[in-house]
Amino acid sequence: MFALHWICALTLALVSCLSAQPVKRDTELLDHISYLNTTILNATCPDDIRLYSPVDIRPDCMSSAWNCTINELFVLKYECSITKEDSTLEEAIVNVIIGLRKNGGIEIPPSSSPDCRCEKYKQTDVKQFLDNMKAQVERLNSIVTTDRPVIM
């Protein structure tokens, strides 16, 4: 019986200690976006390239916004003629796409509203598109770090 009390006390102490630790933000995707932002300068993109750029996303449109951003990254890759010869730039785009598909480790419900279509978002230049994507990821990070349940 005495050992059982110790096990319970240690378990409770461990859980309290773990729940007091700050939640680590996933900065890897932000790092990939920053790298893409600097390496895209080496690409030969047309001056008039415009990409749908989700910003100020409604919560019920988050899934569609991620899919829109991923599709526009493929457009960026095609329009800027990024090939395997541009290995660092292609790798940067692939890393961002993989990171976006992971959704920061949280499940985002699919969007079915016609108001969530990619075409509803403003088209921007490449720099603004990347800045808006970074803002999306930062928003997702804030959701992940503030909405996680705390074990007591």
UniProtKB/TrEMBL annotation:
Coarse class of the protein's main subcellular location: secreted
Sorted UniProt keywords: Cytokine, Disulfide bond, Secreted, Signal
Gene3D superfamilies per UniProt: Interleukin-15/Interleukin-21
GO annotation terms (biological process): immune response; neutrophil activation; positive regulation of cytokine production; positive regulation of immune response; positive regulation of T cell proliferation
One function term, GO molecular function aspect: cytokine activity
SUPFAM superfamilies: 4-helical cytokines
N-terminal signal peptide: 1-20
GO CC list: extracellular space
Top-rank taxon: Eukaryota
Localization in the cell: Secreted
Pfam name, any one: IL15
InterPro entries: 4_helix_cytokine-like_core, IL-15/IL-21_fam
Family the entry assigns: Belongs to the IL-15/IL-21 family.
Official protein name in the record: Interleukin
Organism name: Sinocyclocheilus anshuiensis
